[in-house]
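Table S2 (text version). Query chain:
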Amino acid sequence: MNKKILMAGGLHWNSPSQVGSHHLAKGFANRGWDVGFLSDPISPLHLLHGINQELKDRWKVYQAGGRLEYNNKIWCYVPAAFCTPNNRAFLRSAWLQRNWNILTIPPITRKIKQNGFDPVDILYLCNANDLYLLKKIQHNKSVYRIADFNSGLPKSTPASRSAEKDIASSVDLVLYSARNLEDYVNSLNPKNSLYFPNGVDYQHFANGSRLFPQEFEQINKPIALYVGAMFDWFDFELINRAAQKLPEISFVLIGRDDMAKKRLLKLPNIHILGAKPFDELPSYIHNADVGLIPFDINNHPDLLNSVNPLKLYEYLACGLPVISVGWKELQTMNTPAILYKDLDEFTMKIRETCTQGKVHQQELTAYASQHDWGLQVDILINEFNLN
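Corresponding structure-token output:
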């Protein structure tokens, strides 16, 4: 009989943002495990923000009662509840934080059991909303993965911080993705903890499509590319000023673009392409000239110093040179990324890198290959002696 893991993974399975939980789920499935993947719940209150494509996609999965994904190896489900925890009036209560699951229709625990994921060998959690699973789902081992300084996120509340502390002190193992998170993790009183950095689906990026994207046909080379989320901690002002100083460089941004459209200047060399499916990302990265990680470290030090950047590994797996702002975690990782401190360094290094072309590609891909997600899955399985 196959071993089983139930993962409360946060973002829904087909989200354009594929994060660590998605990749770990695939890694377990590739090793013959049965994988259940729960995403964050939806509620009627989501309608207040309008009906976007992401909400439509999540609703379809809920309505279907779940779906089999990844060549039928992973059961995915989006629960729905009357209301869910949120950093808003009436939704940040301790009671709702710990009991929202009883407001789900159908009951989430019944749905999990019907699909064969109660009991499981490993119960995997990644946010404070998952506390109920520890009590409701029978499991042999439990793990909580911390990939951000959660207390510093806008969605953090006293109730979520309390729930996170209960999770971290109850599970068998707490994983943390950045060394700067170690003190934060220790403050949660875990039984055991392990530094567990992010990785990359190396084959997906290194051997992915090199087909020239249609959008690039209308964009002048060289291309400085950013792929990922763009929220408050993204340095929009840096991109605006760099684009003005380097009119010969095309700045291309891929990812959820609500904030980018408001805060980036409408310049002829700034191109906002929106979110793209994960399967299409390699073609954009392979056909760019330099990859950017322009985070606003000056205004968001606590959050960003605890980031182990997925996009770094993804750029490098495609042999793309990387220019990034420096922060604590990145400076300890001994990466081949080119670091900048200010606008002048940023623009100078973009110009130099685009002039030199893609040199040292073997060094870049070799670094990425050492951080494949499959290696991380093996570490976790060995940690629990579940080979």
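Notes on Table S2: The radius of gyration is 21 Å. The mean pLDDT is 94.
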